[in-house]
Amino acid sequence: MEITLEGKTYPLHFGLKFIKELDEKYNQNQGIKFGIGVKTIYARLNSSDPFAMYEALHAALNTEDGVDLTESMFEDWVDDLPNDKAYTDFFDKFVKEFKSARMTKPLIKQSDKDTKAVEKMMEKVVTDNLKKNLQVNNTEQ
């Protein structure tokens, strides 16, 4: 996958440098946790957050010499797209490539698995609380 910035086309990479940049950004001084940045940016990309796209693109361009994507460059790129569909098409393609890349795929797969486990746990908590509330209401009547 590629992106054209200021008239020049650059390839996007989702390898170790990509992961390392995101890990450094999102680690929060909690020790080395390989992939925490990928999992965090993946969750943010799922919310269609344009700033998350900027951060992910910055990391994906990190491997190219002399390419330091600035917020201004990103804003200009977004503004220069012909329409909203062009942006959403790029966004969707980016996420698809990001999810299927050799180095990020296992991290995303684990993130999806963790998210499903949390959702299942939260569903059980809500169901249990509803049952308790129904029991309390029934005994009060």
Largest sheet: 2 strands, antiparallel
User: Can you count the beta strands?
Assistant: 2
| Contiguous helical run count | 6
**Helical percentage:** 55-70%
**β-sheet strand percentage:** 5-15%
Radius of gyration, whole Å: 20 Å
Description of the molecule:
This protein has 141 residues and is mostly helical. The chain is 67% helix and 6% strand. The protein contains six helices and two strands, in the order E-E-H-H-H-H-H-H. The chain has helices at 16-26, 36-45, 50-60, 71-80, 84-100, 105-140, and strands at residues 2-5, 8-11. It has a two-stranded antiparallel sheet with strand order 1-2. The longest helix is centred in the C-terminal third of the chain and has 36 residues, at 105-140. The protein starts with a strand and ends with a helix. The mean pLDDT is 89.
Please specify the SSE layout and strand pairing:
Elements: E1 2-5, E2 8-11, H1 16-26, H2 36-45, H3 50-60, H4 71-80, H5 84-100, H6 105-140
Antiparallel strand pairs: 1-2
Q: What is this entry, summarized?
A:
The chain has helices spanning 16-26, 36-45, 50-60, 71-80, 84-100, 105-140, and strands at 2-5, 8-11.
Notable traits:
141 residues, mainly alpha, single chain, two-stranded antiparallel sheet, elongated, 6% strand
